Inverse folding.
């Protein structure tokens, strides 16, 4: 599956390591990893939508659906939210990852 | 410690996911948008399929009228003489040359591998083509889902391995054909034997992505399983997989089946090289050599 436009801003190696060390069957680990990917996506989208003016929501969401991999999406957000949005996404992803790690304890 | 620790964690994660979704849906435009779309977690194969099914979209896609499909061959052979000794020669030598771990070949290794494969398959392969090179020539390939070939394409229109499902989003390079009228045997084969490479992690992707996207889109590659010598000429149909997966490549269900990597973990170490085919004469599909 294609990467998403924000993948380079998310560090989840600690999560992967923890899941891989679990003794449960591979299919259950896979389910957890997919769910975690969902959560990170949802966390980032929630943050972006709260920051982005509502008049741009539909355009942004449509673009994400059409070109989820496209680095231009970050530029779109920089243009309509501010140049710091890349750092903000990185920080938001870190927060979500920390919460996930807590859930995995 | 609970009997199934991960199951408890999954329950907690599901709650967290629900909370985040509620947060997203507080935005009226997002709420409206997501009524019609499965945007949440669309990048996840099975999860996304379940979401689509829950939203009733899979059913509606399946009952959409099928466009007329051209008659296409079930098996595709390369224009080379069937000669098992060539395959054995490649197999034996390749195993000596290449490391069994994700690697970018050195120029010396690349030259040996290129000569070995080109001489024995009669298909000219390159580790570096037009100055372009992937970050890995050897890496793990994972089993991908089918991709939508044109707007309105449905899983039932894919003639093999339907159980793999169809990715809800498009590949990184969009549809294979602009519409059902444009859908041809060529585009049928491009999806049937597509592969996925990590263009997004190329060093110059962020600065040159427009050029690189065009250069890589549907480019022919040769993927070889060094364990059994099976080889497929595939077209790059998507970008990925994400780095965290531990995989460097992806393959369509049919590609993975031919490589004999469609069982168990559905992944394996392979060699991936560019096909140097300026006259577009090398057909897509399994290489019989």
């Amino acid at each position: 599956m294609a990467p998403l436009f924000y993948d380079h801003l998310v560090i989840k190696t600690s999560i992967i390591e923890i899941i891989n060390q679990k003794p449960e069957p591979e299919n259950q680990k896979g389910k957890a990893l997919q769910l975690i990917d969902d959560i990170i996506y949802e966390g980032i989208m929630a943050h972006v939508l709260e920051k982005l003016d509502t008049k741009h929501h539909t355009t942004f969401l449509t673009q994400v659906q059409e070109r989820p991999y496209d680095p231009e999406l970050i530029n779109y957000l920089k243009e309509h939210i501010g140049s710091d949005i890349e750092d903000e996404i990185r920080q938001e992803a870190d927060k979500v990852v920390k919460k996930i790690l807590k859930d995995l304890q | 410690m609970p009997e199934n620790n991960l199951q408890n964690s999954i329950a907690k994660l599901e709650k967290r996911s629900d909370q985040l979704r509620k947060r997203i849906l507080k935005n009226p435009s997002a709420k409206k948008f997501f009524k019609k779309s499965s945007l949440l977690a669309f990048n996840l194969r099975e999860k996304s399929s379940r979401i689509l099914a829950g939203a009733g979209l899979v059913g509606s896609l399946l009952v959409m009228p099928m466009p007329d499909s051209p008659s296409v061959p079930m098996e595709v052979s390369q224009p080379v003489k069937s000669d098992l000794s060539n395959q054995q020669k490649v197999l034996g030598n390749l195993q000596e040359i290449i490391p069994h771990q994700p690697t970018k070949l050195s120029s010396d290794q690349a030259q040996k591998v290129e000569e070995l494969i080109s001489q024995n398959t009669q298909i000219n392969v390159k580790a570096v083509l037009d100055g372009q090179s992937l970050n890995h020539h050897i890496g793990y390939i994972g089993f991908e889902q089918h991709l939508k070939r044109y707007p309105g394409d449905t899983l039932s229109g894919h003639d093999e391995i339907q159980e793999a499902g169809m990715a809800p989003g498009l590949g990184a390079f969009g549809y294979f054909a602009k519409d059902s009228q444009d859908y041809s045997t060529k585009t049928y084969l491009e999806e049937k034997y597509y592969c996925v490479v990590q263009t997004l992690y190329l060093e110059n992707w962020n600065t040159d992505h427009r050029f690189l996207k065009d250069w890589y889109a549907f480019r022919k590659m040769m993927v070889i399983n060094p364990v059994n010598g099976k080889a497929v000429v595939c077209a790059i149909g998507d970008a990925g997989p994400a780095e965290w997966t531990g995989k460097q490549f992806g393959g369509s269900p049919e590609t993975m089946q031919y490589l004999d990597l469609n069982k168990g973990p559905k992944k394996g170490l392979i060699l991936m090289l560019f096909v140097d085919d300026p006259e577009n004469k090398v057909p897509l599909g399994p290489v019989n050599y």
Summary: Chain A touches chain B through 48 residues (CB under 8 Å). The two ends of chain A are 28 Å apart (CA to CA). The mean pLDDT of chain A is 87. Helices of chain A lie at 13-21, 26-51, 57-66, 72-80, 85-104.
